[in-house]
Amino acid sequence: MTEKPLSGHVALVTGASSGIGKATALACARAGATVVVNHLASDQQADEVVREIEVAGGRAAARAGDVSVEADVQAMMQWIVEHFGTLHVLVNNAGIQRDASFVDMQLKDWQKVIDVNLTGQFLCARAAAREFKRRGIDPKVSRAAGKIVCISSVHQAIPWARHVNYAASKGGVHMLMESLAQELAPERIRVNAVAPGAIRTPINRAAWDTPAAERDLEKLIPYGRIGGTEDVARAVLWLASDASDYVTGTTLVVDGGMMLYPGFRGHG
Ligand code: NAD
Hints:
It is a single chain. With about 270 residues, the protein is α/β, with parallel strands linked by helices. It has one domain (about 10-265): NAD(P)-binding Rossmann-like Domain (Rossmann fold). The chain is built from 7 helices and 7 strands, in the order βαβαβαβαβαβααβ. It has helices at about 20-30, 45-55, 70-85, 105-135, 165-185, 210-220, 230-240, and strands spanning about 10-15, 35-40, 60-65, 90, 145-150, 190-195, 250-255. It has a 7-stranded parallel β-sheet, sandwiched between helices. Helix 4 links the parallel strand 4 and strand 5 (about 145-150). It is globular, with a radius of gyration of 18 Å. The chain starts with 9 loop residues before the first strand and ends in a 14-residue tail after the last strand. Nicotinamide-adenine-dinucleotide (NAD) binds near residues 40, 66, 196, 201 and 202.
């Protein structure tokens, strides 16, 4: 990749005030993009992410908006076009968990996870694709008219008891991404996904914040360590840049081998 693979780009990262979104926003800014740091209105940490980017010499702005609310997403896209002219990259990252055993799962927890994790990705991708199509290719910026990177999960493929809402939402993201990639490729809009395994962020704190929990989790990871947010951000950056120009409809799994069925080592 060139030194500043996203120079001239405007990138929107949803849920960018913490975890994978924050690391991705920082990576996109280091790569030369102007970054819109989307966050929930109730979340003040986005300003710190913007400050961190600006201190390092980059360009960024925070923008509140709930990805599951159509009016918020439309207003956010309009604001981006007014302030920065257009959009080149969308990182569909915002996501939540509301875990419960299946028989105890409340409809509101099913609905909320589908609304944020799946409908949120639909709304943001639709708004971005409309802008990419309106503008078309700007060869000074990129060979593509636009790039969408969906943050999925290994649970788009690995069933997950007590998390059926989350696993169903990520399975949905998988087919949303592939179907969109098929539909939008003729417009030179690339759509791909990154499927992280276990990454150390607030969403899964209980899975790593004691030595016993960490040891348990590492048994599922052949590579022997929990992932860092940077591991995911680097993959997103590659998919957002022209280095991956011929890649669309692909899921890049970033999981230290979690999807290799490590339980089968030494058996059979
Ligand atoms: P996180 O909790 O640190 O980040 C999620 C972000 O999304 C937060 O900033 C939160 O405020 C924001 N958010 C939540 N609802 C929102 C909404 N309606 N509108 C806008 N923003 C909203 O957790 P994370 O691990 O960084 O998660 C980021 C993405 O990575 C999620 O889609 C998650 O499913 C996915 N993921 C994480 C892991 C992991 O191990 N951490 C593994 C696989 C996939």
